Amino acid sequence: MERFHGVIGIILILAIAYLFSNNKKKINYRLVLSGLTLQILIAVLILRVTAVQHFFEFLGKGMQKIEEFAKKGVDFVYGGVATIGFDGTAQRYETPHSFVFAFNVTATIILVCVLVAIFYHFGIMQRIVAVIAKGMNFIMRVSGAEALSNVASAFVGQVEAQVMIRPYLKGMTKSELLASMSGSLACIAGGILIVYANMGAQAGMNLAPKLIMASLMAAPGALIISKIIFPETEVSQTMGKVKLEVKSEYTNLIDAISHGAGEGFKIAMNVIAMLIGFIALIALVDWTLINIGHIFNPDFNLSLDWIFGKLFYPFAWSMGIPNEDVSNAATLLGQKLTVNEFLAFKNLTSKAVPIVTDKGLLIISIAICGFANFSSVGMQIGGIGALAPERRADLAKLGVKALLCGTLASYLSASIAGILM
How many domains does the chain have? Predict the structure, then answer.
């Protein structure tokens, strides 16, 4: 019966979504069931079908290769910098397998953004997204705009996914808008996914198949949750059709590479700035909390991790995480939601917050694989608002709902995967 513990998580997640629904009578249960079926199918294929497992293991090795290629570029820039190797001695940065978070992460994000820009320029990315979106549209009977934005979110960043549906943003219903925002928060961009997979590889964790599965499952999962919380009551302009008309904004290949590198650098610097700011702030808050705790008990070290461990314990337990990992998993869930997933993955892969069981690692990896955190909501409102200024008020009103949907969608995927392991 331990295998089916995650069923409790599925029931809890769907119950929370139902509780927050603004129109319970209009919930499309066919959409919910078809979406759950699609999520289960994705998980079964990746976890149980040998040929598919080998394919995703191959993709995982490809991700490690991308980091190696990225390091070739960054070696030239930081080649004279000395780092501390795994043996504790000083060595040049270009020494094979050396790792400095800021340098390696920056290089990987920049290279992936360059590759995405190239694929986008030649129309390859648009064709991949359109094909998968048509399949989701057929299975779940959602609108074309929703399907496109949710599938795109599994490959590109939050705002980039909305660029693909820019022509429809102005006329999208509020339900569609929430579904699109939720998908972007539940999924994770390809470049960031590769960074997390390689962080895991550095620590001897094979996270690549888990993270790819998480991002693919998040697309239908976000639609399920968002359509329970905000059912469709209006007529969509793109219901029943998937039409993607996104022309390259680049003049030529060189222009695409230049823009991709520039955008990648901006993203990487934003990640580094957020980590420095948030981790420093957490240190300040923890120092304050510890001193408050010592007032009542000299042995009580109150901290944010302690608070997260208690607050998110019910979610971690209900998803089927083994008892020995529940408390630490709850801490990672709290860090991911309130700070960002980068901090959660850094603590997971560095074993600062250790997860000791294989099942616990699978479930928590999927549960924290997404952009759903408070700072991302602000980024979405600003980014999508720039694409469709007339929808900024709607975006602001739907922001917190999108955060809830994105979080629950990740938890739903994790619960399903845990049952199938």
Answer: 1
